[in-house]
Amino acid sequence: MRYLPKSPAERQDMLAAIGAKSIDELFSSIPERYRLREALNLPGPLSETEVIDFFKARAAENSGGYASFLGAGVYNHLRSVVTDAIIQRGEFLTSYTPYQAEITQGTLQAIFEFQTLMCQLTGQEVANASMYDGSTATTEAVLMAERLTGRSRILVARSVHPEYRDVLKTYAKNSGLQVEEIGYGPSGTLDQKALQAALKDDVAAVVVQSPNFFGVIESLPPLADAAHASGALLVTAITEGVSLGLLRPPAEADIVAMEAQSFGMAPSYGGPFAGVIASRDKFVRQMPGRLAGQTTDSEGRRGFVLTLATREQHIRREKATSNICTNQALCALAATVHLTLLGKEGLREMAHQNLSKAQFALAELEKIPGVRRAFDAPFFNEFTIELPRSVKIINAYLLREKIIGPFVLGTAYPELTKHALVCVTETTSRAEIERFAAALRRALEQPI
Amino acid sequence: MTDKIKKATRHTNQNEGLIFEKSSHGKRAFELPPLDVPAADPTKSLGANHRRGGVEGFPEVSEIEVIRHFTRLSTWNYAIDLGMYPLGSCTMKYNPRVNEFVARLDGIATEHPYQPQELSQGCLKILQLLEKCLLEITGMDAITLQPAAGAQGEMTGLLLIRAYHGKNGNPRKKVLIPDSAHGTNPATAVIAGYEVENIKSESHGQIDVDKLRDLVTPDVAALMITNPSTLGIFEERIPEIARILHDKGALLYMDGANMNALTGITRPGDLGVDVMHLNLHKTFSTPHGGGGPGAGPVAMKKILEPFRPVPILVEKEAGRLALEQIRPDSIGRVKAFSGNFGVLVRALAYILAYGPGVRQATEDAVLNANYIRKHLEGVFDLPYSLPSMHEVVFSDALQKKNGVNTMDIAKRLIDYGFHPYTTAFPLIVPGALMIEPTESESREECDLFIDAMRSIAEEAATNPELVKTAPHTTRVRRLDEVGAARKPILRWKPLPARSEAAD
Description:
By secondary structure, chain A is an alpha/beta fold. Helices cover about 35% and strands about 15% of the residues of chain A. Chain A folds into two domains: about 65-80 and about 345-445, Aspartate Aminotransferase, domain 1, CATH 3.90.1150; about 80-340, Type I PLP-dependent aspartate aminotransferase-like (Major domain) (Aspartate Aminotransferase, domain 2, 3-Layer(aba) Sandwich), CATH 3.40.640. Chain A has helices at about 10-20, 50-60, 80-85, 90-95, 105-120, 135-150, 160-170, 190-200, 220-230, 315, 330-365, 390-400, 430-445, and strands at about 65-70, 125, 155, 180, 205-210, 235-240, 255-260, 275-280, 290-295, 300-305, 370-375, 380-385, 405, 405-410, 420-425. In chain A, helix 3 (about 80-85) packs antiparallel against helix 11 and helix 11 packs across helix 13 (about 430-445). Chain A is globular, with a radius of gyration of 25 Å. In chain A, about 60% of the residues are buried. Chain B has helices at about 40-45, 65-75, 95-105, 120-140, 150-165, 185-190, 210-215, 240-245, 270, 340-355, 360-375, 395-400, 405-415, 445-460, 465-470, 480-485, 500, and strands at about 140-145, 175-180, 195-200, 220-225, 250-255, 275, 300, 310-315, 320-325, 390-395, 430-435. Chain B starts with about 40 loop residues before the first helix and ends with a helix. Chain B has two domains: about 100-355, Aspartate Aminotransferase, domain 2 (3-Layer(aba) Sandwich), CATH 3.40.640.10; about 360-475, Aspartate Aminotransferase, domain 1.
């Protein structure tokens, strides 16, 4: 087998050195009757070429050749080939968690740079080395708010990603949190009156997303004021990081939970991505996850180490701030390289292209009789339209024209069966937008 | 350098500051294609109060500077690709490059989790085949590929247990965890809403079965064990342990972190385990990437199947696959979308490459560990002498006499060209040296490691100071961790403007 570096003779020599007659002797502590007598029933072995052929055949059964208008938490953005070239360097790819700082300074400095970039983007003071994804980061942010406030009621906007809310509910079920949902108003933003009515001195956190799941931008300062007035913390989730190239950072939030997929990570059918938690310096000791910190060595040179580990499971065990151990380090590295490549101007330009294309797409779609913009608050690269018919039926028609239609909001919001969440990014061409608009027009002209 | 150091020599590596320190206004490393629609006016579209000028402090550098920056950083890392990485319990094995290649294919990396399922059959077939393979390897009945890592797998497993007991009328209160367990086990139990009761190992490092019998009360939901244990020892009485639990209605959870010792040899499902997680970034070779990403599938017996997290992969008519989002008894969703799909792809590529021959990998891993044990026994103290599986745990008891501890030996190993073994763990061995070579090491590499360890043991006796001040050859020496934690600097900040600095 090509991955195994031993010849049969070497195996025999090593067994002899150990003093074992056969390899089976090394497994003698496993009771005989539980040892497999037959080989496992697995496909393979496959040569490298056959492995590639197998996955190419699977790839061909997917969505090649279709234009897509899906976002809803996973975005298709330009990615430089440089990012993959860097993260595939074996020194990064095949290195472990940097507990041995002297021989992992590369990873540690890159994490420190990642933390810095995340702070700059979010307007927060401290960011961790990554969480699994945006959904679990949001949940961990809520658990952090619970520890900081000693309270257990959570008010979460219904305009937060439905799957993020699902994950929060899964974790909340057994940790004594009461999760209540706050609706949205006619402009698509959080219903502030409903929030005010629900806010009492037992609320640990108000959780919003911006741009929210309908694509519209929440106005954070009044939400922060309302939360703080009753002693609660404001947790802000961000699913589309590129928006921060143009949008005011969520500096008023006490904890930001971000999905960093937009920064150099392929959609990859939903993962692996990287979650981020960013917050205020004074809350750092309640943060979950790893943190890299700057220090000096015994000769005074700058270096980096994993620090504040007394928050973590390997030191604190059942008293840890989280059970997270393995995180998404290589994805965080991809984000670091990607954002460094884009730089200040590149990120601004990318964000501006997203905004421009979304504005153009909305204008094109609004020309179609019966199509209207559903919410009037400002949006970034996603917006909600209302159609005269069920979105599912329309999408089935679009599919025949090789278009993957917009996200069907009715699945998660029963009151929005005729509403669709349209996403366009800098990767969506004008021609695709026009083709989509033409196809949608034809779809709506079909007899019911 | 001593002539005893055979694997490594000094070489020059480049200095490199933080990327922010190289930034200069107007440079860029990535250009977008021109905008093909009218340019929007951000202030008009977003409103002045939502707008920002640009991200303050963001780097501005050219492409060659990005390449050099990260390439230089990379050369400061040790990696499997450079040599043996004997971190016990971490299973740092070779990460095949073809796995990286297939995970990046068009049609794999490009797929959106919300695209229609009729256009996702390729992705779903990958998930289905991986499920089948992992079920065959574990001997279980059902599986979820959702959890993002081992710790999330543990949580998922405990939530399954909780849901199962809840359905039977009482979720119960406690989870039993041996004192040899990994720190995630107790941390996870708390998140799942359970109290933790630690159980002490008996003198051979095994679970004390008689004591266990007394501890399993109607309050106990489950026992979480690692098998082989963190001492690298197989829990011989595991079928009996399972029976004790089952007689009282409790379940057996197995931490599958050490599955590299069992794959193709025995199956946890056959041993009486009810639910377990696998670390695909350990046993199934997906790269550790400096700390992640991983994946932590959870395999289970039929009784837990109704509680699996959504989405659930199902086969419909004519072999059509679908993900179902609604299950009445499900514990809910543990992560958005369909697991760490790209990691799952890599794990399947690994399994397909071996096929049934994966048993050979297990045999070689155990062979390497025993070979190292044989050659270091006596040189280092072996606190538990039961047969080793895929890893061996020594202690620093002999070297302590000269004031040299396991961390010193580990740091000195760096000078010899190796990554250290695991030092801080398991907690039941004070001053542990936890060594897991994996199957990826040749006899030559094992011999070099043995020589290095013997040489360090000699140094510890003759020149302890040399070991205590190691490493001597790295670009930085031991770092001030206490200072880092006391006054944390967790991000770069620009220097104050020159006029202020002059004050």
